[in-house]
Specification:
homodimer; 206 residues; alpha/beta; Dna Topoisomerase Vi A Subunit, Chain: A, domain 2; two-stranded antiparallel ribbon; 43% helix; Recombination protein RecR (chains A, B); metal-binding (chains A, B)
Chain lengths: 206, 206
């Protein structure tokens, strides 16, 4: 990429932007020039970052990003506290909740199991999840845990591990995974074979 | 896009990131979550923005971004001061200079003429360019001005206007545009017709 080492500060900004998902060195340079073209843009992003650094924390119960001790979901009295959905990321929690299909609460893992990269059960927050389940079971409010990981190798491994760990401790607790099947709005012709196979195995009475 | 209004600060960051070229609301949310996952990432970008705000300014002569009064190009004594290349943006100056084909100096316009959006000669810095040329002509050091705008409607309009303005003031100054023709490494078969036509009209003796 064209760089004249015009300014170490500018290079540092390009490098920092290039770390963002979706950006490479070239688009990061374009974004940096865009920001430099108007001081207001630069200040707006700088203020937004400072605001996030100062105000955003993790919800004490579900670990989603929020600005108070409990997030709007965990403090919503109309939610069904007997249902707990375990997700891999904040983005997954937002997507599930936007589907309006889940009336219960959530728990956000820190990613998914990936032993090759040294991401084990502790790294994704298994202890915190077990503590949460234990407290809810002790309080007699938990009926079901949905392990909402994706049907990818890592998502499968994470689900199997969590399901085994929870079943061992609480054999009478209902524990489920999201259904596997055809996505809405996609022709079978254009659906990948692994998805079709999953939908065949999980076929249900009409 | 899935949003729970979890945090006004987080929303403000997503909105600010979504303004960057190459980002939309969805990728901006992904980038914001990526930054939030590690406080170090957030701080790094914040520090980089502050560094740019504090240190980066425009070169007094060519208006490229730099950290001192004159940029490394303008203060480079080995450059041919009789050749001035007028470009639309800092990115264009970097690209031209990375080609290693231009031994002279530069002048960066603030974009290109776009009367529909109210971008006239003043807005793109014509006065500053004329001042620059006047000073160089008075000092007897200027031989040629290349108007290096692209062969797009706005680039063409900008070039015609600048060429006319400079010719009127300095009829004896050589003023050129970059050659129009086939790009390197692209088969004629896959080249757009307007580019092929331009290359035919500008054909040269072999």
């Amino acid at each position: 990429m064209a760089s004249l080492r015009l300014s170490p500060s500018l290079d540092a900004l390009v490098d920092a932007l290039a770390q963002l998902p979706g950006f490479g060195p070239r688009s990061a340079q374009r974004a940096a020039f865009h920001l430099l073209q108007d001081p207001k843009r630069l200040e707006r992003l700088e203020r937004a970052l400072a605001g996030v650094r100062e105000n955003v924390r993790r919800c004490k119960k579900c670990r989603v990003f929020c600005e108070s001790e409990l997030c709007p979901i965990c403090s919503d009295e109309t939610r069904d506290k007997s249902l707990l959905c375990v997700v891999e990321s904040v983005a997954d929690e937002l997507a599930l909740d936007a589907s309006l299909a889940w009336p219960g609460l959530y728990f956000v893992l820190s990613g998914r199991l990936n032993p090759i990269d040294g991401i084990g059960p502790e790294e994704i927050g298994l202890t915190a999840l077990v503590d949460r389940i234990e407290a809810d079971v002790a309080a007699g409010i938990l009926r079901e845990v949905v392990v909402a990981t994706s049907y990818t190798p890592e998502g499968d491994a994470t689900a199997y591990y969590l399901i085994a760990a929870v079943k061992k401790r609480y054999p009478h607790l209902r524990i489920t995974r999201l259904a596997r099947g055809l996505p809405s709005g996609l022709e079978i012709e254009y659906t990948d074979l692994s998805t079709i196979a999953g939908a065949v195995y999980a076929r249900r009475d009409a």
